[in-house]
Amino acid sequence: MHEVGLPVDLNFFTQLILTLFFLSLGLLYFVKRTAAKYFELGSSGGFDTNHRRDFMVPETATECAVCGKLSTKKCSRCKSVRYCSAECQKSDWSSGHNRKCKLFRVTDSSPVGKDKLNFKSSLFGNRSASKLALAPQLSQSKASLKPGDVLFPYEQFVKYFYWDEPKLAPCGLTNCGNSCFANVVLQCLSWTRPLVAYLLERGHKRECRRNDWCFFCEFETHLERANQSRFPFSPMNIISRLPNIGGNLGYGRQEDAHELMRFVIDMMQSVCLDEFGGEKVVPPRVQETTLIQYIFGGLLQSQVQCTVCSNVSDQYENMMDLTVEIHGDAVSLEECLDQFTAKEWLQGDNLYKCDRCNDYVKACKRLSVRCAPNILTITLKRFQGGRFGKLNKRISFPETFDLGPYMTSGGEGSDVYKLYAVIVHLDMLNASFFGHYICYVKDFRGNWYRIDDSEVENVELEDVLSQRAYMLLYSRVQTRPPSLRCEEVQDEKKTDALNTESSQNGSVESSVVEANDTSVSSSLCNGTISHSEDPECVKESSSSSSSPLAVSVAVSENGKEVAERVIDTVDSES
Asked: Superkingdom of this entry's organism (predicted)?
């Protein structure tokens, strides 16, 4: 019996295995060579995401004023003299620094050491120690804060918002090991006009009384060096403090730029409030009067309307940025915001619990911007889930953007913004777990630059608008009203009109309930208010019979808050 089998060509299989082996080596070399542009490679050839000690030494490190060793601490009062240990600080304090410290604080002397920076007096020489500061005077009692107090004068913020310094130019930042996400955030903040104007014109370091590390102080030093340096430098003094900024951020790891931006803004807001006793001490209404709140703060409204009784419930939430998702066929920023503000029906397994009906009913929900911020930060949610789940489709965005159509009141043409910064995330194979960040910024003369870590290149606006943006930063053409309740004037006019109409036909009864400032602030920040019906939502309801119409507005009369004005309209019988 003969066995019949397929002939085996050993030479063919040997050549095939060798060919696949060399192709694998070539592909691995190509991947490493491409990734080396974006990541630090370790000595073993792999991606080095660990914390390396040599990177922890800042390029801007200064020497100890006592022993000359590398300094890791600084005087908490003057922020100018540095030490390597608490023993050296005590020694210098007892040898006479306690008498010189006040002089350092007033004159804002430069640190002692070889890396002393020589700043131009034309740019920073106009600071005045007598000007108002982010922090209160020592004589001011923290317990004396009342809901009507103001932590930072809005008139001063307006001056910073329109501040113009055409001499400033972008400066690159070296990559300290997977620090591109932090570099782009620092670059965008470095061209946020009111923040830069405050730190360079007034200064925060001389009046800061924090005993620990302060982001405001460090960022002020960062701006001073960036605006005086002709070459890229390392932002290690900030990068090494990422765990202090918030969350689980760590040096040497790949992080999300949007997450860092949120943490940085929250930290700067906390610094503003800590000077007055902290968030738990400062009334909610007063928290809206910090510099950071003036810059980034806005008000988001969530409106839910019952389709049975037509009752409308509004919830207000303070926002520091706007995150929108990319759904379906959306190809522009406007379409993404249309989806963000579109009505959502609460039905089926997601019924709404109506307080008036005391039952779970069908309702419609809509998000809108109640009050637009002065600096609008929009994040396009490209990371949907999974290691290769990034959405790389291009979403067009305009240079001039009108937020009016997405406002609660529809806008009156005053909520117009100009683009000044764009953050882009580059990746391979739609990977969401690694990549590289670059940014585009516009200087105060209107010139656009592409910044890739230490590389700075002048580009045209068309190049910016063609990018697959991850984050967009817009600045208002005109500042908004000082209060987050920027529609109070409009509501007051509407109320006056209603009162006039009611006095003429006698068919409207009104009642005014006066409340204290604290309750009003709480309701506007995170509270719930019931008011007028939305006819589009009621149209979908099966029960469209006549029902009371409730209108709730928040107005200000002679400095006092009127919490709610409810007007019940009953159909008159002929």
From this structure: Eukaryota
pLDDT at residue 504 above 60?
Answer: no
Buried residues in 385-399 as b, exposed as e (16+ CB within 10 A): eeeeebeeeebebee
Q: pLDDT tens, 174-191?
A: 999 889 999 999 999 999
Encoded amino acid at 392, one letter: N
Select from 296, 262, 252 the least CA-distant residue to 39.
Answer: 252
Question: If you compute the radius of gyration of the chain from its CA atoms, what whole number of angstroms results?
Answer: 29
SS3 255: coil
**Total domain count, the chain:** 2
- Cβ(422)–Cβ(188) under 8 Å? no
pLDDT tens figures, 422-474: 999 998 777 767 789 999 999 999 999 999 999 999 999 999 999 999 999 99
Least confident of 393-407, 435-449, 542-556: 542-556
* 375-381 and 322-325 beta bridge pairing: parallel
**Residue indicated by tokens 């959306």:** 330
Q: Global pTM? A: 0.67
Question: Residue 286: in which H helix or E strand, if any?
Answer: helix 284-287
Task: Out of 204, 258, 425, 436, pick the active-site residue.
Answer: 436
Active site residue 97: no
User: Which residue type, as a one-letter code, is found at position 344?
Assistant: E
Q: What is the pLDDT of residues 250-302, one digit of tens each?
A: 777 888 999 999 999 999 999 999 888 888 889 888 999 999 999 999 999 99
Q: Using the structure block, give the residue that is written with the tokens 């340096």.
A: 229
Quick check: 99 and 117 in contact, CB under 8 A?
Answer: no
Degrees to nearest 5, angle at CA 181 with 175 and 182: 75
Is residue 137 domain-resident? no
Query: Bridge partners of 417?
Result: 401, 476
In-domain check, residue 340: no
- Which of 171, 180, 214, 336 is catalytic? The answer is 180
Q: Say if 205 falls within a structural domain.
A: no
Within a 10 A sphere around the Cβ of 546, how many other Cβ atoms? 9
Distance CA 275, CA 216 (A): 13
Q: How confident is the model at residue 249 (pLDDT cuts 50, 70, 90)?
A: confident
Task: Give the max Cα distance, the chain.
Answer: 115
For residue 234, being part of any structural domain is answered with: no
Cβ-proximal residues to 243 (8 Å cutoff; 6+ apart), any chain: 249, 250, 251
332 DSSP β-pair partners: 396
Q: Is 180 a catalytic residue?
A: yes
Cα separation, 260 vs 242, in Å, equals: 9
- Specify the pLDDT at position 537: 59
| Tokens 């630090």 sit on residue | 40
**Per-residue DSSP letter, 66:** T
Tell me whether strands 436-442 and 363-371 are parallel, antiparallel or unpaired.
Answer: unpaired
Write b or e for each residue in 447-481: b if 16 or more Cβ atoms lie within 10 A of its Cβ, otherwise e. Answer: ebbbbbbeebeeeeeeebbebbbbbbbbbbeebbe
C-alpha distance from residue 1 to each of 6, 29, 510 (Å): 17, 53, 108
**Distances 99 to 215, 367, 461 between C-alpha atoms, Å:** 27, 57, 54
- The range of the structural domain enclosing residue 30 comes to 8-36
